[in-house]
Specification:
Length: 256
């Protein structure tokens, strides 16, 4: 399968476009492998400061390709779900912010992908759902990302009923950062990325790591961790430049 994932870099922002619209951009092995490959490439590319994941066609992603699961062996399914988890964790561990630009449906693992990204911009027509329960395959791995993005009871309602929620409702419960008209989706995602990368790349990477590491800790441990990271951060060239620029009333000049 050729060009299942399109890749371009515009003004230091990498845009990954899932490009299998006839399959509603299912997270097939090929799609997941392409996402993993490009994300690994981006991790090592100093010229890329942020990432946008979007989609061609009428849908963001309808989740896994069920044809790859229904008659597969346990080992085959284990490797597929491990690959999916690897992609999601790569997004989380990437030192650069990742924005999902969602239109149409984002269901099951497609909803997981959106929830995994650091930020989500959605078109007004977007819907989000974890409907696996309706076909006898509970969305257990999507639940990991979903339950960390929205309140537990709202996540459980989505998981237990499979009922889609609108972009407006997704924004209300915290799954989506902003909702825009469909025709403005790409521009809004790029504008958000450019706003973010006006800050130091080193600082963004350090801050993203600290944010996700502290989430898993209780409050005292979270403060202990982030205190250490604040000390580490204060010693960086970026922090010294930023603070001195503030005191000098001038724009900072970042090295990265």
């Amino acid at each position: 399968m050729e060009n299942v994932l399109l890749y371009e870099v515009v003004d230091r922002v990498a845009v990954l476009t899932m490009n299998h619209p006839e399959k509603r951009n299912a997270l097939s092995r090929a799609m997941l492998a392409a996402l993993k490959s490009h994300l690994d490439r981006i991790a090592d590319d100093a010229g890329v400061r942020a990432v946008i994941i979007g989609a061609a066609g009428p849908a963001f992603s309808a989740g896994h390709d069920l044809r790859e699961i229904v008659n597969a062996t346990p080992d085959e399914n284990a490797s597929l779900f491990a690959l999916c988890t690897d992609v999601m964790e790569t997004i989380r561990k990437l030192s650069k912010p990742v924005i999902a630009a969602v239109h149409g449906v984002a269901t099951a693992a497609g909803c997981q992908l959106a929830a995994t990204c650091d930020l989500v911009v959605a078109s007004a027509d977007a819907t989000f759902a974890t409907p696996g329960v309706k076909i006898g395959l509970f969305c257990s791995t999507p639940a990991v990302a979903l339950s960390r993005a929205v309140p537990a009871k709202r996540a459980m309602e989505m998981l237990l009923t499979g009922t889609p929620i609108s972009a407006a409702e997704a924004e209300r419960v915290g799954l989506v950062n902003r909702v825009v008209p469909r025709e403005r989706l790409a521009d809004e995602a790029v504008q958000l990325a450019r706003q973010i990368i006006s800050s130091s790349g080193d600082t963004l990477g350090l801050g993203k790591r600290a944010f996700y590491e502290q989430l898993a800790l209780d409050r005292p441990a979270a403060y202990a961790l982030t205190q250490r990271i604040m000390v580490e951060n204060a010693e960086t060239d970026a922090a010294r430049e930023g603070m001195q620029a503030f005191l000098d009333k001038r724009p900072p000049v970042w090295k990265s």
